[in-house]
Amino acid sequence: MQETRTEASFHPLVEQQLQESFFHDQAWLTLVARRYGYHTEILTTTDREGRITGMLPVSLVSSPLTGRRLVSFPFSDYCPVIAADISAERELVCQALDLARRSRVRYLELRPGTSLQGHDELMESNLYVRWMLELDSDPGTLWNRLRKPVQRQIKKARNQGVQVRPARERDEMALYYRLHLLTRNKHGMPAQPRAFFFDLWDAFASRGHLHLLLAEYQGTVIAGMILLAYGSTVRYAYGASSERFLQLAPNNLLLWEALSWGGTHGYRRFDLGRTARDNEGLMEFKRRWGAAMEPLPYYYFPEVAGMVATSESSAKYRVLTACWRRLPPAVAGPLGGYLYRHLG
Q1: Domain, as residue range, for 251
Q2: Which residue among 103, 168, 186, 190 is least enclosed by CB atoms within 10 Å?
Q3: Same structural domain, 167 and 285
Q4: Residue 223 three-state SS
Q5: What residues does the BioF2-like acetyltransferase domain cover (predicted)?
Q6: Strands 82-83 and 123-125
Q7: Do 265 and 157 sit in the same domain of this protein?
Q8: How much of the chain is in helix, strand and coil states, percent to nearest 5?
């Protein structure tokens, strides 16, 4: 059962934070809960006037494969503890801890994106960082912030005839998914079920929060990027490309078009997403675009646990990804769609 916040009265500071947080949007919470079958609750605090002063969505993930845990929030890089003040924040965390104990989960996982103070019960994990880039309404200003190798790759893609266009129709999400499945398989990772991406389109495209960019070469879609635009931030959510055409640098042109679009449409920041600290190659790629690294702590009770808390340099991670790479796409697609709910 999922609570709703459509008719609630909010403290102004809470309302302001909610306007910036995609991962608190009711449509996102509902999509994840329904698609993966999670029981989701929205923990809240209130003041004397009955206004909501804090909000934290949590999902109970119960899996025979990966265990029983409470997560805020599955398939979200970060889910801030929305609070008008520190006392509301602490009360929300206490509610989450109490719920974890009552639900008898193996662990509680919070992904607030910022530090949580005053909770000795929580164990902090710092496997990840996120990369944020300041946008500008002038594409020329953005261009000058790029390092020369990045600029050369963008020019190369254009000179080779790669073109980027926005998707207009729901069915075009299938073009993206084909590439997404191949890309995830190449990296040894299960892919989300195909229906998940159509759910995203249905929930957010008409509201202007989802934008799918497709890179084409000689009439063939060779790369794609899904952007989530919310509040003042554009977020790089998902990206995929055909390995056959990587020499044409379509991903560089896609990202440049995404940055230009965000800046000219009034967004102030571009979120390049979560990166494992031990993935130096990906971190250097993001540095070259002028992005700045920000901490991304996760918190656990009673101990750090789960797939998200597994280092990409660990033997366990390397074995799992190596095994998955050997699966043919015809097997990896359906199997990944089935397994994905167990990874939340």
Answers
A1: 130-294
A2: 168
A3: yes
A4: strand
A5: 145-287
A6: unpaired
A7: yes
A8: 40, 25, 30
**One domain for residues 150 and 276:** yes
Which residue type occupies 25?
A: D
CATH number, residue 26: 3.40.630
State how far the Cα of 305 lies from the Cα of 309, in Å rounded to an integer: 6
What string of pLDDT tens digits covers the 344 residues of the chain? 344 444 679 999 999 999 999 999 999 999 999 999 999 999 999 999 999 999 999 999 998 888 899 999 999 999 999 999 999 999 999 999 999 999 999 999 999 999 998 888 999 999 999 999 999 999 999 999 999 999 999 999 999 999 999 999 999 999 999 999 999 888 888 889 999 999 999 999 999 999 999 999 999 999 999 999 999 999 999 999 999 999 999 999 999 999 999 999 999 999 999 999 999 999 999 999 999 999 999 999 999 987 676 766 777 677 677 776 777 777 877 787 778 888 87
The two three-digit tokens of residue 109, written as one number: 């996982």
